[in-house]
Design goal:
This protein is α/β, with parallel strands linked by helices. It folds into two domains: 158 residues, P-loop containing nucleotide triphosphate hydrolases (Rossmann fold), CATH 3.40.50; 120 residues, no CATH class. The protein contains eleven helices and nine strands. It has a five-stranded parallel beta sheet, sandwiched between helices. Helix 2 links the parallel strand 2 and strand 3. The longest helix has 21 residues.
Length: 312
């Protein structure tokens, strides 16, 4: 871990050995978000997979840090930034604008969690919220959430850690960034989910498969999942299933091309049904199979995950 004399450091992954092919500059990941949402765990995760991480960095120092990293021939940098003043939002936006002038387009990861989860975490470690002042923990959470509202809206990845343990958060960070600091891969995650468990907060696109008949009501299919051939075949045989796949892929191809032009390196497509076990699982895998394969390192790195598979 690198000590910059402003708290404990963390490790960054490497900028000049290989420039980002999308943006022509060093790779930079900025991890921010709610206090207690897991920034320290995210920092350790990035360090473990080879990123050079600096923790608790004031936003105004981001351009300077990139210059230093470039001189040191580091291939990529991950900076963990948090709220230290009311000028945080303005400072971060100014820093990102200055980085853009240098040809560096950072990927911003925003970690959040529900108020209940954050309160429990602060109570467990017996620490005050950094913005609560003389008030309660919930007052600090509310103030911070309002302060970060615009930052959250501009982030490339919004990850809700309310129901994630340390190992699950590490796995999610690995899934996003394990390609390495010099990787120019653009990643598409297709996630099945159940509406009864809530909409994924980090979804960029959402497809609702509840217009298809539910295999749950077929006794011989109820105990199976969309990964089993009988369920898959049943879902695909329903009126509208193939037409949906054809039409949605046409939309998805346009969207993905636009995301890539805008430098969005991580896209989450959430595919939902009632319980996240049958229709969404089968159709998520069908969509993934239809995304064009990468050629000569170009294209989309597609990953499929089933968020609610196995839940009762």
């Amino acid at each position: 871990m690198l000590d910059l004399g402003m708290n404990e450091g963390a490790a960054m992954a490497d900028p000049r050995a290989e420039l980002d092919p999308l943006h022509g500059g060093p790779n930079l990941v900025i991890v921010t978000g709610m206090s207690g949402a897991g920034r320290s765990t995210a920092a350790k995760s990035l360090e473990d997979i080879g990123w050079y991480v600096v923790d608790n960095l004031p936003p105004a120092l981001l351009p300077t840090m990139i210059d230093l990293a470039d001189r040191a021939s580091l291939p990529g940098v991950a900076a963990i930034v948090d709220v230290r003043s009311r000028a945080f939002t303005t400072d971060l936006k100014s820093a990102i604008s200055e980085l853009g002038a240098k040809g560096v387009t950072p990927q911003v990861v925003f970690l959040e969690a529900s108020d209940d989860a954050l309160v429990r975490r602060f109570e467990n470690v017996r620490r005050p919220h950094p913005m609560q002042g003389t008030g309660r923990i919930v007052d600090g959470i509310a103030a911070e959430r309002e302060l970060l509202r615009s930052v959250r809206g501009d982030s490339d990845i919004v990850l809700d850690t309310s129901s994630l343990n340390v190992h699950e958060l590490r796995a999610r960070m690995n899934g996003y960034f394990a390609g390495g600091a010099g990787s120019g891969t653009t990643r598409l995650t297709i996630m099945s989910f159940g509406y009864k468990y809530g909409l994924p907060v980090d979804a960029d696109l959402v497809a609702d498969l509840r217009f298809l008949p539910n295999p749950h009501w077929i006794p011989e299919l109820r105990g199976l999942t969309g990964q089993d051939a009988p369920v898959r075949d049943y879902v695909l045989a329903q009126p509208g299933a193939t037409a949906f796949l054809d039409a949605y892929m046409a939309v998805l191809n346009v969207s993905l091309a636009g995301f890539e032009r805008e430098g969005k390196r991580f896209v989450v497509l959430a595919v939902g049904c009632t319980g996240g076990k049958h229709r969404s699982v089968a159709m998520a895998e069908q969509l993934a199979a239809r995304v064009p394969a990468r050629v000569d390192g170009q294209g989309w790195d597609v990953r499929v995950t089933h968020r609610d598979l196995g839940r009762e």
